[in-house]
Amino acid sequence: MSLLLQMLKSKIENMTLQYNYIKILFVSLFMLSSLSLLAQQENLFTEENFVHETDTLKYRMLLPENFDESNQYPLVLFLHGAGERGDDNKKQLVHGSKLFLDNTNRGAFPAIVIFPQCPKNSYWSNAEVDRSSYPISLSFPKDKEATKPMQLVIGLMQELTGKDYVNKDKVYVGGLSMGGMGTFEILSRQPDMFAAAFVICGDGNTELTKNYATKVDLWVFHGANDDVVDPRGSVKMVNAILENGGKPNFTLYADDNHNSWDSAFAEPELLTWLFSKSKN
């Protein structure tokens, strides 16, 4: 009897080992498949460079399915946050790219989508940033020259909007965190370029809202618990836009911290709202 129990126990242990092996193998194959799919999707964003004199801006570009230069398409610019800065021309796709890669969205909203990458030690906006305490302290000089990355982004957008296949009445911009600040800034510098914009956990110069308050439709998002970029920054920008005649949408997520982009990207009406806007 003792021998029989021992044999049974050994068999059960072997079966358990086999089951665990199969489970690990299945999980590994699933992860590899997911990573492969993600890599394939990322490759739909082609690697590009915009060169102006001695400066280069790296960016990714997603074209509509069955792109045809004889047609006209909306153009979307997306500005990433500080954590995605670099020179690999890849990290900027971490947040937001899946929204535009979604098959349903690509079918419903065919557009050219641009994801530029800001170098590590620079910013989209000319913000003065103090990270000695949190939320970080921010100020936005009114008359300061645009940063080099912002100058290059404006140059790229001017070049792209000059293409016959771009619908100049349907040009949009969005961004999160540092990119949200960059969105407010590019609107102040190029108010006639964009039909609509969305800003996630951003901030900016309130005086400059007069440049675009009545020209660009806006949807502003922030998390009430944001301990990196103070949500009152968005509140003051929305107030300034209202004071200057604009009528922005404003969504404050009561339970969100800095990553309010997750909630914003999940908004079912975000892209419907965005692509419905036109300058004419």
- Rg over CA atoms, rounded to whole Å, is 23 Å
- Helix proportion: 25-40%
Give the strand line-up of the largest sheet: 1-2-4-3-7-8-9-10
| Overall pLDDT metric | 92
Strand content: 15-25%
Quote the distance from N terminus to C terminus.
88 Å
Number of E-state strands: 10
Shape, per Cα inertia axes: globular
Class from secondary-structure proportions = alpha/beta
Give the biggest beta sheet.
Answer: 8 strands, mixed
What ranges have pLDDT less than 50 throughout 5 or more consecutive residues?
32-38
Tell me the number of helical segments per DSSP (H or I, 4 or more residues long): 8
SSE pattern: HEEEHHEEEHEHEEHEHH
Describe the structure.
The chain is an alpha/beta fold and 280 residues long. The protein is 37% helix and 22% strand. An eight-stranded mixed β-sheet has the order 1-2-4-3-7-8-9-10. α6 links the parallel β9 and β10. The longest helix is centred in the N-terminal third of the chain and has 43 residues. The chain is globular. It starts with a helix and ends with a helix. About 2% of the residues have low confidence.
